[in-house]
Amino acid sequence: MKTALWILLLSGVCSLLAADIPEDPTFDVTKVAEKWYPLITANYLQPLERKPFHAFTATPLSNGGLELKEEIPRDGGCEVKSFVLQPQKPGVLQSEDGKFTIMVIKTDNNHNMVTHSEIGDLVLLQLFAKGKKIQDGWEGHYSEIQKELGFSPKKYHYLLESDLCTTPPK
User: Fold this and answer.
1) Among the listed ranges 18-22, 36-40, 157-161, which one has the minimum average pLDDT value?
2) Which of 27, 72, 126, 157 could cross-link with 91 by S-S, CB 3.0 to 4.6 Å?
3) Is residue 149 in some structural domain?
4) Is 70 helix (H, G, I), strand (E, B) or coil?
């Protein structure tokens, strides 16, 4: 019985990874500079713990990449973790060490974007916005993409409505 469950799980993961994930060719790194908030997150492999993901500030690089500064609450303050994503093709960015890949699946380049991220064994589908509320129509876009890629609706994870880092980052 356990073997059958593992085979089903593995086949599901393989089908997701083999799925043709459609990058948004209109993604423009020069238009995404600002602070972004994760509003909905789903993890393909397992339900996520009820803990918030951190907001980040994106800064476009001259080579088409992005520098991300993630704000992490620490001891009453705010630590900033910075990392660079290099362009692979339109709508696809990867960390310099190759351990993190993000695909922008749908965006309006101004306020909203749906991304598919792979960080080691973690596979996430996320809706980000420059504000702290879901814009009209974007929950529907997210739901459609979620179904197409095989993410379970039970794994929806609504996230923050307020900044986690209340003091300015250092």
Assistant:
1) 157-161
2) 27
3) yes
4) strand
